[in-house]
Amino acid sequence: MRKGQSRSRHTRGRSSSSPDGASAAVPLLELLREKDFKSVEDLRKGARLRPHEFEAAVGLLERKGMVERTNGRVSAQGRRPESLQIRAESGYVAAVDIGGTNLRVVIADITGAIVGKWTGSTVDASSPGKVVHLIQKGVKQITQQTGVREDSLLAIAAGAPGVTDSKNGVVLLTSYLGGWKDVPLGKMLTDALGAPSVIENDVRLGAVGERWKGSARGLDNFVFLAIGTGIAAGICVNGELLHGPAFAAGEVGYLVVPGTSEAGVREGNPGALEAAIGGEGIKSQWRQVTQRMHGEAMGDLNATEIFDRALVGDEEAQRVLQNSARILAHAVYNISVVLNCSHFILGGGVGTNEILRDAAENVLRAYTEPAQPQLYLSSLGPEAQLIGAVRLALDAAEKHMGIRA
Amino acid sequence: MSKEPILIGRPPLLRQTNAELLLRLLRETGPCSKADLVRASGLSAPTVTNVVAHLAAAGLVEAIGEGESTGGRPPDILRFRAERGCLTAAEIGPSSVALLVVDLEGRELAQARIPFTWESSSPKAICELIGREVRAVLRSLKKPPEHLLRVVVSVPAIVDMKAGVVASLSKLKDWSDVPLRAMLSRELKCPVDADNDTNLAARGEFARGAARGEKNFVFITIGEGVGAGIFVNGKIYRGARWSAGEIGYLRVPNVSRENPTIHGYGRLEKILGAPGILKSWRASARSSQSRLKVKHATDVFDLAAAGNAAAKRILRQKAGILADVVLDLALILNPGLILLGGEVGNHSGLLREVKGLLAGSEFGVISIKLGELGTAASLWGAVAAGLDSGIAGLLQPAKVAV
Fold first, then answer.
1. pTM attached to this predicted model
2. Which of residues 9-38 of A touch B (CB under 8 A)?
3. Which CATH superfamily hosts domain A91-205+386-400?
4. What is the CATH number of domain B210-371?
5. How many beta-carbon pairs below 8 A join chains A and B?
């Protein structure tokens, strides 16, 4: 309905600039990616398209070389293909996750299936130029190994660990990678690889990934809360990522809730919430609790080890677990109150800990007003960002090819 | 106008969309020619001609003479007939109903405030009261009842906008799951919308107050209770179940200590709202045996500004809690602006204190201001919402002569 209106508004009596069949081509492609159809007619019905819309969409995808029909046959309604296949090898996208220590590259075909992976290290190569070089190297290696032609690369999407202007492809600020500032990564990647690019914050990519293939499948309103060394939220409302005018929406590492430190946050230091329940925060809770109870800090344990101990009845570990769970529950609850959104996907090294999730869920049982938040574990784990990047790269490719608005 | 307008595209809907577009342009730019409308709207000339004919038949547009010629026949200048109808904004408060009647350009025609008692505050009684008073105002304006094109009601409650149902209004009698939209629409015989008062206040500040031109902002209101209206990309953000911004539920530090209950936390609004501030003042006055009489919560803030030590302490403490709320809202939503409003929140002393506290943090860059519309924000928001939801569709054109 919307589409019809807006198009008619801009056509001014001449033919539309958007190619015929474009509005139906994307959902059709999506269906072909998702599952097999017995017959072409089943596919058409599954896509809820009228015959002529279906024909237009198939025609467009065919012209772009993305689908192939076989056994064409002429009937009274016109040519109706007997079988329709997505041509997986007709194009590829690259997806990149730039981390503080690792850089991961995958290449996927247009069905979204990953055909090759590569991992490099950003430890000694954290400058933007070097990172782009690493990405180039990764793409080259994968294409060489898999026989994918580099000129069949349709688009590239990269996730950066910081505040990212996804509209202009600029990484505004990172605390990792030696601190990037206003890096035009999108343009740099396009220049290096000769393909359109998308740049997005890594946690938002995680949200995209979970919505496409993970724990948030089919949801229009949810929060992907990543808890690792840092904490951030990828917020999806009404089916769209929330960015905020300065692209900093969901930077909840600085959230203040009961139990977080009340000392003012200083620039460069971790935020209040991160300092409490980020990976390092939990370690430091452990040091403090054991110090208090035994007069000296007990060995350095990480969050997983501490929570495992809590599960078998270790008293100090249980204190840390309960305190962390309460703070996590408060943070989740506050976000859910503001957004009126109760579906939370927990990601990241600490976030995906089931013991912590269960303990936080226990706390949330008392928080029924206005709506009780529900906690789910990420089902994609560390792959969420990469899968989200594949999704955005496919979207960008479709846009570039003129089949997506 | 001797021809039946030709139907365009998917006729009724498309024509209505185009009609709303042209009306908005006429409202925004003032009288102009058809050619101007073609240029500004991007619609084709025949479409504009068609829609204008339709609007003229409905009495919403008229030609007011000839403009300047650029060579050929001088063009007709078209004018939006704002007097063709009126809209009413109604605000249901704890003890009164406020009405604001405007023309189709949103210019004020009349205002009224009608008190009611708790006994006569049932949904039915309130609807009848609004009906009676709206009809009276229209009579005094010498407007026929059918000139009332839309009513938007503001209620201090969560509203299911799809169903037009008000969830619960604890201060009034029997207000639980009230189908207010249907009830009032029957009473007034015109389309009605109901919305949450804080959302509408934000809408008002966006339309003609401190948030003009800011598509992403949060309006925090502090009065008897607290709440927030959230704008995302130029629209009210309502959440999955209509209760986004119910910040009275937020859990922030320093609340527990002041009001320890079994659950450990007092509700934020019991602390930050007017009763909470007065309670703090009484507690401190008792211990210091102060004789200063304070009637309103803002009196405490005024005393703080005048140097009263106890009042300063209270102000600082409330501002500290509010600063945490502001910080959390800013982190989650990253708005371009945060506005303070409401009877208590709209206070420069409070604003100054909160700003001071946030300046020390990394997020001192958050822009915080006071609302500009005061307690009229919700009414003006209702006007804006009413005008924006379209008026062309409300008018059936008189039969066009063939």
1. 0.90
2. 9-13
3. ATPase, nucleotide binding domain (3.30.420.40)
4. 3.30.420.40
5. 141
